[in-house]
Amino acid sequence: MSECKNVFSILNELMENAKEIQNEDVLKVEDLIMNAKRIFVGGAGRSGFAARGFSNRLMHLGFQVYFVGCPADCRFRLREYSQLSFQCQDCKGSGSKGCDCHNVPRK
């Protein structure tokens, strides 16, 4: 049986990136998360999938988390992004109702 070189390549890249992370920065982020009343996590595309997974983990840990964005096929209205307003292909811009698939209130 031969080894999977792609997996080792990914692991090596992750290890190189991990060397750039300072422990003090991780502790600061941990403190921010632990003391937050609400946590908003956002992303689009592949980063959105990772962000959505992170928001799900936080939710499972009992935090009040809101995912802002769409991992796939979402048209952001940049002017209104700070107001958590976007159109999503999943909910087809359901008007004044909240976006059920993302738990984000619409304006």
Would you give an account of this structure?
The chain is α+β, with helices and mostly antiparallel strands and 107 residues long. The chain has helices spanning 5-18, 23-34, 45-60, and strands at 39-42, 65-68, 74-76, 86-88. Helices cover 39% and strands 13% of the residues. The protein has a two-stranded parallel ribbon with strand order 1-2. Strands 3-4 form a two-stranded antiparallel sheet.
Topology:
Elements: H1 5-18, H2 23-34, E1 39-42, H3 45-60, E2 65-68, E3 74-76, E4 86-88
Parallel strand pairs: 1-2
Antiparallel strand pairs: 3-4
Briefly summarize what is shown.
With 107 residues, the chain is of the alpha+beta class.
End-to-end Cα distance: 56 Å
Class inferred from helices and paired strands: alpha+beta
Number of helices: 3
Question: What characteristic shape results from the CA principal axes?
Answer: extended
Features:
two-stranded antiparallel sheet; 107 residues; 13% strand; single chain; two-stranded parallel sheet; 3 helices; extended; alpha+beta; disordered C terminus
